[in-house]
C-alpha cells in the first residue's frame, strides 16, 4: 500500500488548527507509542495528535482522507495483538485527552463517556452513584474506547455478557471526517442494519469512536467469592458445566493452575491463601440479598464437594479478597516476568471442551519442549495461553511458536471455537483468522471495510 508521507507542510497545517501541545512530530514521539503491551510489532507514527473533541477528530480525518494518510487510533496501549501500532506510519490519534464522563442519565440507566475514560475510573464513578458497569476486562487501566474496539470481555461475562452488551450508542467519525451518531438511549432497535455493532470489535479499522452511551444496571447489594481446590485440572473443569446447569449463575467462574498462582506469588511478593493443589476454581456470586447469594454459592459449593473438590474457601474478608483477586489480576504480568519473551492466544471454545483443550495444550508443550502456562474464563470458554521463550534460540523460538499457534488454532476450530475471545486480531493473528473463517467470510469482511473506508486509511494492515 502506498500512502502520503507526512511532511513539514502537513505539520504546519495541523499547528495552525490544533494546540501545539497536542502535537508530537518525528523525533518528539516517545518509544512507548511504537508498540503495544505484548504483540512484538513495532513501528512509529510520523505524527502523533491528541484530539480533545469530536470536531477536532473530524478535522483531522478530513485532512487525512484528502491526503491519503493512514490513521491509527490508540487508547492506553494495553492491547496484545498490535492493533494500535502504526505499521504504515502516518497519524496516530492518542485519545487519552478525550477522557471526560459527559453525562449520567439515572432515568435511562446510561452513562455517556469519551473514549479515553479508563475502565477503572468508569467503574468507580458508577459505584459512587450506586450503579454498576458490568464488563470487567483484566486490564483496568485500559480505555473504554479500546474496550469497545476489541469487544473486551473479562471475568463477569459468564453472567453479564461482554462490552458489546452494554454499548447502546456511539458517536463516530468516519474516514472522510463525517460525524455520525449510531444507536442511542434506546433499549430496542430494529431499524435496518446495526452499524453500531459493526464498529464494536472492529479494532479501529472502520471509524474513530469519539463518544459512547453505555448501559448501567443497579449495583448488586451483596457479593461473595469461593476459592475451590481440586487435585487435577480435569477434575476442576469437569464440574464447570455442572455448575452452569444447576440453576446457579456465578458472576465469574475462573480456572487457575497452581503453577500460575506461584508465578503470581513471586511477582507480587504476596502469599495466596492455598497453593497445595494443582488446580483451582474461583467463583463469584452477587445479588440483591444475602439469602439469594448464599443459596447460590452453597449449591455450587456442595456440587463441587460432590465432584472431587478438596475444600471450599469463602473469600469473605478484605485480606482474602485482596490476596485472591490481586493474584488473579496479575497473572499476565507474572507470567511475562518469568520468561525472556512470550506471545499469547486467547482462543474461545465451547465450555464443555475446556478440559480437553487444556489437555491438548499440555501435549503441545511436551512435544515442542516449550513452557506454556495458561488460565482461563472457564465459565465462558475463553482461555488465555502463553508461549514462553525462556532460553530458546531465536530461530527455534520462532519456528516452535508458529507451530504451537498452528496446532492450537486448528484444535480450537475442530472444537467449534474461534481465534480470539476478547483480545482481537490486530496484525499478529491475521493468518490464523483467515484459516479459521475461510475465504467467503473474509471477503464479506473486506466488503464491509471497503464501504466504510474505500481509501483504506483506517488502521490499515489489521484484522484483514
TrEMBL record:
Designated name of the protein: FAD-binding oxidoreductase
Q: Which UniProt keywords apply?
A: FAD, Flavoprotein, Oxidoreductase
Can the keyword Flavoprotein be found in this entry's annotation?
yes
> Which cofactors must be present for this protein to function?
FAD
A Pfam family it matches? FAD_binding_4
Matching entries from SUPFAM superfamilies are given as: FAD-binding/transporter-associated domain-like, FAD-linked oxidases, C-terminal domain
Q: InterPro entries under this entry? A: FAD-bd_oxidored_4_C (IPR004113), FAD-bd_PCMH (IPR016166), FAD-bd_PCMH-like_sf (IPR036318), FAD-bd_PCMH_sub2 (IPR016169), FAD-linked_Oxase-like_C (IPR016164), FAD-linked_OxidoTrans_Type4 (IPR051914), Oxid_FAD_bind_N (IPR006094), Vanillyl_alc_oxidase_C-sub2 (IPR016171)
- The highest taxon in the source lineage is Bacteria
Residue ranges constituting the FAD-binding PCMH-type domain according to the UniProt record: 41-219
Q: Does the keyword Flavoprotein apply?
A: yes
